């Protein structure tokens, strides 16, 4: 079946469009891949071949997103209908078999076939392709710009980098290595430029990426890099002659490494990590505890300095306000921000005036706050807690503590009981006392009873004693009375000086009416007792006294809360077993334990110290000594992995000592020093003292001395 | 016939022959001169062979000799007339008569009864032969350097090495004295110019085995001296501890844990009820401790007990403890009451004081001068000490809290401190371990060694006589003494049958292995240049001591035979002989020709 002209035209057009579209896609994805891989290579320091992967990924994504190649001719005809109005929505006629067309369709087809040739179909896709090419150009420019960023960066930080150059350490470079480069790329947040050095000793920031590049003068079979004597990595040559080698590693921990070139190990080189410290917060103002007195403005100035080794990201005040007292304390927390922006500065001085009133603080409230700061690596640190309190003036002026009867009650109960005891004592001793003495004591008891009554009277808000009972005006000891209120009613006396309190019965309203009634009843009983005592009838006074005490006891109970007991199930006691004194059922527990042998580390290190000491005098190492030394070396490797600056030299010295036959006292000194540092925190332990040999003569002498002493 | 008479007779024969020849010569010119010349030549020749001596009166007493020893200042002896002697190879640069062996010299010169000694004096060995002689000692200026030093030759591991001594600085610069060991500088002290200063260094050596520390004296970076300080750190078995407690408390709990962790064999018995105990056997086999018997106590080195338990145990158990202590067991009693509850603890008096204001107890070890961290305790109970007691731990004002006394061959310690575990709680582990180490070490049963060796002198040196005095536990059998495999012949002490003595002359310095009956112990031989100042100081001291002793009974020396012999130099005779023979030759050849 031959294709009609129209069909061929549409088919070709579709092919052209798809091709152009794919070209455009390629251009766009190239541009995107360029930009992305430029970022990857220069920010994340990945290898350049990542570009291919990125390109492939983008291409696939774009293709899958718009699978244009799947479209059929009929789809395309719909598309060109839409695209070119000249076709009068009849492009699909071109695709249909001419024999199956109606008359009208044939006419239209003939008209369209003429139009086809006038259409320039490439114009639109070409235009889009140019846009795509423009994007590619832009991508090229951007990626080129990205590659230049580090250099601009470098130019900025040349000054700061020059300030702390890597200290030059003399180190032995393996003979096979003709040239080498160590590139240290600090993590991005440090803002430090990458640096190159011609030295194996590395001092890098935590998380820095270190790239080693070696050029060797001969072709090598193998090249290994060994970290901390544990982790061995076999390098792959970068060129066919095996003279170029490279290796990259992110360093998180201090340690050491060495190269192994064709089976021969190099010196040990140290890797020291500069840790990123959290933000240092220094509060200059206020003091740790500040009290704001009356009259002072209820605000304070907060001044502080923040410093970090790489940059501060955020800082805020975390404030907690405590208000209320005792059980009624309530806390409210607030986060106050400093109204400044943090642009990763290394140092910043912050200040803030904190208005306590606006925080809603009242007198008596306290403010606790601390500063929390974050550095640009996300480490947070916080300051000590600072206190600011506002003095409560009402607290100072209040009389609550002085008139609060409840606190004083127990003492008074005792007094009533005392009076009863004294009365009973008086009655007991009555026979042995003279009438005069009896009367005096009875009267004295009456006075005590009166004083007690007066005290309770205060709780009822009575201004003076005369009102109680109301019927004891005919007192015979006025002089005594005059003195008494001064003594006991101190508070009232002082108050009287300042206030004219006539009908102020405020104090009395501490109690409920019911309680008041009972208190009144107490007073009546007390008065009755006093009356009997004063009339020298203590026997008659006793019942009143007891009643008063009982009422008081009741009062006391009333002020107490009652909590019902919950049910408790206890094992029923076996009375026949209790207190029998039989112990035969009691077990005698016996425990046996053996402490596990302490690790040999300490013992071996100590022995190796002495071994090195004996080496100083020229003694050669024996086979057993070498075994001990290799154990010591193992321990030292562990120590050096954590603290390369302290132990790496010693490790090198130790290796030299065990391998070398020539004596180097300085090496021994270094190794001994390090071993002593490794034996840390040794405390004293009890030791058996030794005595001279106990010969029979001494023993006889001692025995005779003992006999003589008896 | 003596040689000189033969020579004289032969000379006479020669002279008469010469005279006959001169007289009988035909030419009689200058006969007189020739005769004179002949006589002169022969006389001079004879005198060349036979020396001419003459005596001159001198002020020097022939019963006295002047002996110069090391360190003699040349200026001070320049004025001394008469013959000066010195021991062989000791003095250089001064003209002296050398004495090879002083005792021999004195034996061959019986008229000598007094010696004038200059310099640093004589060694003990030489001084031995000088008993009975009058000695006039003119000591040299004090030697500069370390003039006395002492330290433990052997310490137990975790014990402190204490180096003490005196440095005499005779220079006008201050001197820094530095203790160095195992590659570390440990401590230093500076000594002011022209003064002597006692020094004391303390350190806890970390090695086990032998080590040589160094005591270095420095004057402005110049090393004046480097003295070796050899010592040995030994490790030994752990002491066995028995704790009897009447009730469990934290003090016991922490002590138990600490001893357990340090692998001390420990039996811990707590009373639960009457005759009912809970027992822990830590790091040891279980044994029956329900009843304390003499035989069970023999297995322990220290018994820690509180007063309540001491009162609660049966009387025969108390007797067993008493006998055990007399036999060497250490007893450590904890008290908390003013009233003594048993006869044991009542040996120590106690008194109570109202609590002090500062509510903290600051303790210190009396012997070691070590101050502990403060304990948050209100201590009211203190111990009275008598002359028989030794206070071990005292508080800030000197009141005793731990005291020790001897009981038989054992020791009894008592303490009124109730809770030392507070140190552990506050993280002061060192204080806690120091306290209990001191207390338990003092209390524990002493271990009798099978033998002991004493090495004389303090600093054995190359080619110097070194003596080993060996004490054996068993007497009667001669010990095998070897130094580096070389067998020595020991001699038995006449009075003490278990003491043996052997001498040795080392040839090299450094550590030497001394083995006595299989057990080997190292000893150190010093170089002859080590500890010079100290050695000189020692000879000064011993010489002046002897001279002081000798001067108490000085012998009167006579000044009667007050002559010394002098010899006429033979050069005179030689020149006379040459002159005379030259004249004779000249006359016969030239004048007579």
Outline of this structure?
The complex is a heterodimer of chains A (710) and B (593). Chain A has 710 residues and is α+β, with helices and mostly antiparallel strands. Chain A has helices spanning 5-43, 50-65, 73-83, 91-95, 103-118, 123-163, 393-397, 400-403, 405-429, 435-459, 478-488, 490-498, 513-534, 538-558, 601-616, 623-642, 644-659, 665-678, 696-709, and strands at residues 177-185, 195-197, 202-205, 208-216, 223-227, 231-234, 244-251, 255-261, 264-265, 269-274, 280-285, 289-292, 299-307, 312-323, 330-337, 347-355, 366-375, 380-382, 386-390, 590-593, 690-691.
| Unreliable stretches covering 5 or more consecutive residues of chain A | 158-165, 396-412, 465-486
What is the chains' assembly state? heterodimer
Share of residues in strands of chain A: 15-25%
Computed Rg of chain B: 39 Å
Largest sheet of chain A: 6 strands, mixed
| Mean residue pLDDT of chain A | 77
Q: Measure the end-to-end span of chain B.
A: 44 Å
Strand content of chain B: 25-35%
Radius of gyration from the alpha-carbon trace of chain A, in angstroms: 51 Å
Q: Walk across the major sheet of chain B and give the strand order.
A: 17-16-15-18-19-26-25-24-21-22
How many extended strands of chain B?
36
**How many helix segments of chain B?**
13
Report the helical percentage of chain A.
40-55%
Total domains of chain A, how many? Answer: 5
Helix/sheet category of chain B = alpha/beta
What structural class do helix, strand and pairing data of chain A support? alpha+beta
Which CATH architecture of the largest domain in chain B is right?
3-Layer(aba) Sandwich
